[in-house]
Amino acid sequence: MAGRTVKKDDKAGTWYYTLTYGKNEKGKPKQYKKRGFRTKQTALQAMNELEHSLMNETYIKPNKTLYKEYMTEQWLEDKQTKVKRQTLETYRWLVTKHVIPVLGSIELSKMRPEQIQGLYNKLTRDKNLSDENIQKVHTLINDSLKKTERWGLIQKNPAALVDRPKSARKEINVWNIDEVKRFLNHPDNDSRYSIAFLLALTSGMRQGEILGLRWKDVDFENGLVRITQTLSSDGKEIQPYTKTKAGARTINLPKGTMNALKKHKKKIQVEREEDRAGEYVNLDLVVCSQNGTPTNKSNIRRAFERAIKLSKVKRIKFHGMRHTHATMLLIQGVNPKVVSERLGHSTVRMTLDVYSHLLPSMQRETADQLGKTLFDE
Q: Transmembrane segments in this chain: where (predicted)?
């Protein structure tokens, strides 16, 4: 029979429980004690949970490992086998700069949901991180503690009891058809990077996908490109495309884009043939430097900003051309599933969520078209 007591510590003003259950290795009654509960009810509940786990042989001895020790010595090390180098660097930055200073000194077994929530509140209040990065913090904390639960280091994952922080949807800036035409016909549209801009607007490819595209992945006969690799966000390495299962895909392109690719290929071949010093690095890249190496993202950003000024269109980010491509297709009535496949989204729902601002006008146009068909309106 277990001995159960719940008492108040008058000096500390908190409650504690003492549970006697089973025997130790010397055959004497084994006692479990825990302090620091704000109310008698929470102390009693914790004691009941402990007794239940002892009765069902699911009790896990409290782990004295600090969260910072586990995160730096175990979790981040294990992540090297699961994520790309750039992603791992982002995780390491978030852990060392934003998670460990707040939660690092807490023992794994003593981590509480309110402490995790407190971190999210602080990050939101300090505004040192974007909403998206605060969500990443939640993802990595939840993943790390889920693993400790799975490995039997803690009994429950406290992060599972904390709501994922919300992220305010950012306004998407895109060009209309007139702006797209002006941009594509700007005075400097024959620069070495113009082909990258044309691909972004007519395929919806991500910047890394464009900068990692090879000539062997361009099918001139069938008028399409195959997305098989991408340039890392820091521009240091070309990686096999594994963003999502839908990411590695085939995209059909307009004839105008294919003709521009043929013209661009001749220009690249001339550069390769004129390399007298043998410095050209043939990586088979469609968009590359004069030496054939991957494009420096600072250079393409400057070229993009120059093209915007020359064409006198509103300023958007390079990624905004991907949004522009999707917007043009949806407004023209292209099936969202087709748009989703071109963009490499994992689901059609993701596409509709990103471009939900277009739905009202699409609904109106659909109703008008139906009226013309049925009632000659």
A: none
Global pTM value? 0.69
> Residue 32: CB partners within 8 Å, gap ≥ 6?
18, 19, 20, 21, 50
Q: What integer pLDDT is reported at residue 235 of this predicted model?
A: 76
Whether residue 242 is found in the same domain as residue 198: yes
- Torsion, CA 74, CA 76, CA 79, CA 81, rounded to 10: -70
Q: Are 191 and 336 within one domain? A: yes
- Tally of structural domains, the chain: 3
Residue 261: C-alpha distances to residues 50, 215, 267, 368 (Å): 68, 9, 10, 38
Max Cα–Cα distance, the chain, nearest Å = 93
Q: What secondary structure does DSSP assign to 258-306, as a single string?
A: HHHHHHHHHHHHHHHHT--SS------BSSB-TTSSBPPHHHHHHHHHH
Domain-located, residue 329: yes
Can you give the residue range of the structural domain that contains 144?
67-161
Note the pLDDT tens digit of each residue in 215-241: 999 999 999 999 999 998 777 788 886
Specify whether 243 is located in the same domain as 325. Answer: yes
